[in-house]
Amino acid sequence: MNVILLGPPGAGKGTQASSVSKDLGIPHVSTGDMFRENLKKGTPLGLEAKKYMDAGALVPDQVVVDMVRDRIAKADCAGGFLLDGFPRTIVQAEKLDAMLASKQQKIDMVLNLACSPKTILARLTGRRVCRACGAIYHVRNMPPKKEGVCDACGGEVYQRNDDKEETIMNRLDVYNRQTADLIAYYQQRDLLKNVNADAPREQTEAEMLAALRA
Ligand code: AMP
Prior knowledge:
Elements: E1 2-6, H1 13-24, E2 28-30, H2 31-41, H3 44-55, H4 61-72, E3 81-84, H5 90-101, E4 109-114, H6 117-126, E5 127-130, E6 136-138, E7 157-158, H7 165-179, H8 181-188, E8 192-196, H9 201-213
Parallel strand pairs: 1-3, 1-4, 2-3, 4-8
Antiparallel strand pairs: 5-6, 5-7
Helix pairs in contact: 1-9, 2-3, 4-5
The structure holds adenosine monophosphate (AMP).
Adenosine monophosphate binds near residues 9, 35, 59 and 162.
């Protein structure tokens, strides 16, 4: 099953994708995580992406599309994948459709994590991430057992540069201008399912799994 998770930054895509992908037994493909991983390794792709990420802007379409094309061509994606953070523009969505069509594949479902501005802001300003394994925490709702230390791997838990307040506003603006149009794009193709992402994490996850298993 090929699934896309849509939703504004802070809607909980990363947190939900990590558990839902385990439940479905398909890989979680997060373009943001891939860029952060590249940056950690100091690759040219990571250094190029950093310029955009630090400003809360989008990395150019072609760079992201090429990266995703390589990723979903890997063997572990043969039985399906869960995309998180991609596509983020209509151009990316069209290119994704074309790349799947060339392999006689398609997107099966798009889950839209609908979320109020109040929740988004609270989630983004409180979000903390493990530098080593990418596990996601929240200072109030889901803190690690020991402050600054990842429960899963013992790595350093930090605040992403782009989760600082000055960048958050730009990311939300970018979402409204460039990504929100994807809701209509997938609605027109009868693929969109809205999920209440203001609800507690477990409830949103249950709603997602029910939609995917239906
Ligand atoms: P995320 O972890 O999904 O919030 O992504 C973090 C940052 O990575 C974004 O603010 C963008 O700068 C970049 N990024 C991730 N996915 C994409 C994409 N599909 N298109 C363009 N830029 C992206």
